[in-house]
Specification:
The chain is mainly β. It folds into 6 domains: 119 residues, Immunoglobulin-like (Sandwich), CATH 2.60.40; 114 residues, no CATH class; 115 residues; 113 residues, Immunoglobulin-like, CATH 2.60.40; 98 residues; 183 residues, Zona pellucida, ZP-N domain (Immunoglobulin-like), CATH 2.60.40.3210. It is 7% helix and 48% strand. It has 7 helices and 57 strands. The strands form 12 sheets. Strands 10, 11, 14, 15, 21, 22, 25, 26, 27 and 28 form a 10-stranded mixed β-sheet that branches. β17 and β18 form a beta hairpin. The protein starts with 22 loop residues before the first helix and ends in a 56-residue tail after the last strand. The N terminus and C terminus are likely disordered. Keywords: Signal. It holds the Pfam family ZP-N.
Length: 794
C-alpha cells in the first residue's frame, strides 16, 4: 500500500497496482448481457449492493474501479479498504457494502460520493460474464465524529476543523501523545497506538498500514480503519457486554504547530441471539471507551432499522421492531419474518425448514460536555438457525357420520397441497374434488394454514376388515404431497387413521313357541354374508331344511325358520307325563373362521303325548300308551327286561321310563356302521276266561324300544366303556305284541309292523357311567323298514 499527498489539500490515497481494463469495450459487452437482479442503494453511512446468486450457485466477484485501475474485493482487501462482502446461499443473495470513505470512491467535499464496480457472474454454461455497477450518492453533512462498526472492520472519521481540547479536558493518554508529538522533529505523518497497561508504539503511516491500520484524509475529515482482533486492540467488558477497543492518535508537524487527532473506535462484539421468536443484539447503553479525557458522554438518541436505514418510531412499531434501553445495556430485537429481512424456506431430509436473515442497523447519537456529537453506527448481519416446521395431523373422525376427517396443520403460507395418496392410490387435489373427496384449506395462526380431507368409510379406497365381536375396522393411510412455492420443492407427510365400528354384529333371531314347535325370525342386515347359520355342526341350507323337515322362508328382508317338534336338533328336558321342555338352538358362525359368534336358543313347554328320547349321555326316555294294545292293562304293573326297572311315572294309560343304556337289561348290538341299544316294556299279569288271574313267567305284552347311534359318533366305546355320543341317537318304538290268555308262551313278532316317528333329545335324569354289552339276535337290516328319520337320522 502506497500513500502520497495530492495538491490542494492533504489527501492520503490508497494505490494498488492492478491491470487496467478497457472501459469502452466493457460497456459495449455489458449492454448485450441479460438483465441481472442487482439492487444498488445509497444508505446513511454506506452503499448497499444486493445480487441474486446465479443458477450455477457460484458466488459473484466484485472489483472496485477508479482511475488507476480495477482492484479485486477480496476478504482481506475489503477489510483494509472499507468493503464488506457476504454471501448467503440459503437465501440466494450476495451483499456488498462500501463505506463512503472506501479506497476507490470518488469524494466531492465529503458530500457527493461516486462508486464504480465490476461484477463477474459465472453461469451454468461455464462462461463468466461482466457487468458494470456504478452509483453516485449525495449525503447530508456528517457529524464531527462518526464511529462505524461493520462486520469485518471498525472505522472512525473525525472532522479536521474541530477545536483543540482545553487543558482541563486532556486525558492522560492524550497528554502522553502530545509529548511524543512535540518531541518529534519530523513533519511526516506519525501514528501512535496505545494499549492499556502497555507502552505506546509510534510509527509512520506507511508502517502502520503494513500492520493493518489504514489512515486517509478527505477534504474535511481524517479516517482511521482497522480489522478486528489486531495486536494493539483490547477487549473490555462494558456493562456486561464484550467491547473491542482500539486507540490511535495521528499527529504531524506543520510549520510551528503540531496537529494531533485522537481516533478511538469501540464496537460491541455481541453476535446476536435467537430466542425462538425474535433476533436480539446487545450493546452498552453508553460506549464509555469513546470518551476523550474526563468528559462524559450522554445518549441523546437511539434508533434501529435494517439494511443501513434507521426507521422512525411508527414504522418500527408496525414492523414489531423493539429497542429496550436498560440501565446499562440496549437490546435491539426484530421478530421472526418481520418486514425488512429475508425469509427463506427449503426442504432438507423431507423436513420443511425456514430461516430468517436481516441486516440489523443500529444508530446512537452521543454528545460530550462540549457539545461535540458522536454518531455511532453498527451493522450486524444476523440470521436464525434453520427452523424445522413439521406438519401434524389430527384424526377428527366422527363415527356417527361414518366419514374419515383428517386435519393436517402447521402448513406455512408458501406451501400448497398438490396431491394425496389414499391407501396407495395417488390423486391430485383437482382430481380428488372431481371424484367427490372434500379437501379444504382453512387458516390457522398468522401465515399458517391447515388442510382438511373427508373420506367416507364405505369409499372403495378404504380398507375394511372384520374383527371379532361383530366389529369392522376401517383403515385409511394418507400420504400428503406438499410443495414450496415458487421453487416447488416437495416434501411429504404421512397420516394413518382407523375407526372401529360395531355395526357388523351377528344376526339375532327372535324365537317364538308354537303348538307344534318353535319358530325363529331375523331381519337381514348389511353384513349377513359374514356369517353362517348352523344347527349343531351342520350349516342351515335349503337342502338341510328339506331333509330334516324344517320350514325355511328366506326373502330379501327376513329369514324365518319353523322347526316342528321332534325334528332333529331339539334338546328335551323335564319330561313328565303331563309336559316337557323342548329347546332348539341356532348358532351363528364366522363364515371365515367357523368360530361361533352367537347363539340363539328358545326353550318352550309342550304337552306330553308319546315320545322316545335317546340322549347323548346314554339315557333312553320313553312315554307311551300301553292301553292301545291291551285296554285292560295296568301301566303301573309294567317293567323293562329287568323286572326291577319299573316306570318313574304312570297314569291310567301311559308309562314313563327313563334309564341308562347299560341298565335294566338293555341289549347291545354293534356292526360296522351302527350301535343299537334295545329294551322292552312288558306287562306280566293275564286273566283267564273265568276272570281268575293266571301267573306266568312269560310276558303277555311286549313293546320294543331302541336307540340307534352311529359308531363314528361314540367315543372310547371299547377303551374305557364310558358312553359319550356326539349327537343324540335315533329312537324307534315297535308296536307291542298282544298274547292271547290261553297261550302260556309269548308269541313271535307279527310280520305287520306299525311304525312310530323317531325322536331324539337329552335325558332328564343322570346319565349312566358305563354301557353294558348285551346280546342281539337279529341283524339291524331286518329293521330297515323302521324309520331312522331324515337323512338317515344322523
Amino acid at each position: 500500500m502506497a500513500f502520497g499527498f495530492v495538491s490542494g489539500g492533504l489527501l492520503l490515497l490508497c494505490a494498488v497496482t492492478c491491470a487496467l481494463r478497457d472501459s469502452k469495450n466493457t460497456l459495449q459487452q455489458s449492454s448485450r448481457l441479460p438483465q441481472v437482479p442487482i439492487v444498488v442503494e445509497c444508505k446513511a453511512h454506506a452503499l448497499f449492493i444486493s445480487v441474486d446468486l446465479p443458477p450455477s450457485g457460484s458466488e459473484p466477484r466484485f472489483e472496485a474501479i477508479d482511475a488507476t485501475g480495477a482492484y479485486p474485493v477480496t476478504e482481506s482487501y475489503g477489510a483494509q479498504c472499507g468493503y464488506t462482502y457476504s454471501a448467503h446461499p440459503l437465501v440466494g443473495l450476495v451483499h456488498l457494502r462500501a463505506s463512503y470513505f472506501s479506497c476507490h470512491t470518488g469524494n466531492q467535499n465529503d458530500e457527493v460520493f461516486t462508486f464504480m464496480f465490476g461484477l463477474f457472474i459465472m453461469y451454468e454454461s461455464g462462461k463468466e460474464l461482466f457487468f458494470n455497477v456504478s452509483k453516485t450518492c449525495s449525503v447530508p453533512p456528517f457529524p464531527p465524529r462518526v464511529v462505524t462498526c461493520e462486520e469485518n472492520y471498525m472505522e472512525v472519521s473525525v472532522r479536521t476543523d474541530l477545536p483543540s481540547p482545553t487543558a482541563g479536558s486532556i486525558k492522560e493518554g492524550f497528554s502522553a501523545a502530545s509529548a511524543v508529538a512535540q518531541s518529534s522533529a519530523v513533519e511526516a505523518w506519525q501514528v501512535m497506538l496505545q494499549q492499556e497497561g502497555q507502552q505506546s508504539e509510534v510509527m509512520s503511516a506507511e508502517d502502520a498500514a503494513t500492520l493493518g491500520y489504514f489512515i486517509m484524509v478527505t477534504p474535511g475529515r481524517l479516517v482511521f480503519r482497522t480489522t478486528f482482533g489486531q495486536r494493539h486492540a483490547s477487549v473490555k467488558m462494558v456493562n456486561g457486554v464484550a467491547v473491542e477497543v482500539i486507540q490511535a492518535t495521528v499527529f504531524f508537524r506543520q510549520n510551528w504547530m503540531v496537529v494531533m487527532v485522537d481516533l478511538v473506535a469501540a464496537c460491541s462484539l455481541d453476535e446476536g441471539t435467537f430466542d425462538g421468536y425474535r433476533l436480539h443484539w446487545r450493546t452498552p447503553a453508553v460506549m464509555t471507551p469513546l470518551v476523550v479525557g474526563p468528559s462524559e458522554l450522554r445518549s441523546e438518541y437511539i434508533g434501529m432499522g435494517v439494511d443501513g436505514e434507521v426507521v422512525d418510531e411508527q414504522a418500527a412499531t408496525d414492523r414489531g421492531y423493539s429497542v429496550t434501553i436498560g440501565e446499562d445495556t440496549v437490546d435491539s430485537s426484530i421478530p421472526f419474518a418481520a418486514e425488512g429481512g429475508i425469509r427463506k424456506s427449503f426442504v432438507t431430509g423431507n423436513v420443511y425448514n425456514e430461516l430468517y436473515t436481516v441486516q440489523l442497523t443500529y444508530q446512537q447519537k452521543l454528545v460530550d460536555q462540549n457539545g461535540v456529537v458522536t454518531k455511532h453506527n453498527a451493522v450486524r448481519q444476523m440470521a436464525t438457525p434453520p427452523i424445522p416446521r413439521s406438519p401434524f395431523s389430527v384424526n377428527q373422525t366422527t363415527l356417527e357420520e361414518r366419514v374419515f376427517q383428517v386435519y393436517l396443520g402447521n402448513i406455512p403460507f408458501d406451501v400448497e397441497l398438490v396431491s394425496v395418496e389414499l391407501n396407495g392410490q395417488e390423486i391430485s387435489v383437482l382430481t380428488a374434488a372431481k371424484m367427490g373427496y372434500s379437501i379444504t384449506r382453512v387458516p390457522e395462526e398468522e401465515n399458517s394454514f391447515a388442510y382438511i380431507i373427508r373420506v367416507p368409510f364405505d369409499d372403495r379406497l378404504v380398507v375394511k376388515q372384520y374383527l371379532s365381536a361383530g366389529s369392522f375396522e376401517y383403515t385409511l393411510d394418507i400420504k400428503w404431497t406438499l410443495n414450496i412455492r415458487p421453487q416447488m420443492e416437495a416434501y411429504y407427510h404421512f397420516s394413518s387413521v382407523s375407526a372401529l365400528i360395531a355395526d357388523a354384529l351377528p344376526p339375532v333371531f327372535d324365537g317364538m313357541c308354537t303348538d307344534n314347535g318353535i319358530s325363529f325370525m331375523s331381519d337381514h342386515q348389511q353384513y349377513d354374508y359374514l356369517w353362517d347359520i348352523a344347527i349343531g355342526s351342520y350349516t342351515l341350507t335349503p337342502q338341510l331344511a328339506s331333509e330334516r323337515g324344517y320350514i325355511l322362508t328366506n326373502d330379501s328382508t327376513t329369514l324365518i325358520l319353523a322347526v316342528p317338534l321332534f325334528t332333529i336338533g331339539y334338546v328335551y328336558e323335564g319330561i313328565t307325563l303331563k309336559q316337557f321342555y323342548g329347546t332348539f338352538e341356532l348358532l351363528t358362525r364366522s363364515a371365515k373362521t367357523l368360530e361361533i359368534e352367537q347363539s340363539s336358543a328358545k326353550r318352550c313347554l309342550f304337552q306330553t303325548t308319546e315320545l322316545l328320547v335317546c340322549s347323548t349321555e346314554g339315557v333312553m326316555t320313553v312315554v307311551t300308551d300301553i292301553t292301545k294294545a291291551v285296554p285292560s292293562a295296568d301301566p303301573a304293573r309294567t317293567t323293562l327286561l329287568d323286572r326291577s326297572c319299573r316306570p318313574q311315572e304312570t297314569d291310567e294309560t301311559r308309562v314313563l321310563f327313563s334309564f341308562g343304556l347299560n341298565t335294566c337289561g338293555t341289549r347291545f348290538h354293534i356292526d360296522w356302521q351302527y350301535v343299537t341299544y334295545e329294551n322292552e316294556i312288558t306287562f306280566h299279569e293275564l286273566y283267564s276266561t273265568d276272570s281268575r288271574p293266571v301267573i306266568t313267567r312269560d310276558a303277555a305284552y311286549r313293546m320294543t324300544i331302541r336307540c340307534i347311534y352311529p359308531v363314528r359318533g361314540i367315543e372310547s366305546l371299547f377303551v374305557d366303556r364310558k358312553f359319550r355320543a356326539e349327537t343324540p341317537g335315533i329312537g324307534q318304538i315297535k308296536d307291542p305284541v298282544k298274547v292271547p290268555p290261553q297261550m302260556l308262551k309269548p308269541m313271535q313278532p307279527q310280520k305287520r309292523t306299525v311304525m312310530k316317528p323317531s325322536f331324539q333329545g337329552s335325558a332328564a335324569r343322570k346319565p349312566a357311567d358305563y354301557a353294558r354289552v348285551g346280546q342281539w339276535s337279529e341283524p339291524l337290516d331286518k329293521y330297515a323298514q323302521w324309520s331312522l328319520g331324515p337323512n338317515g337320522g344322523f
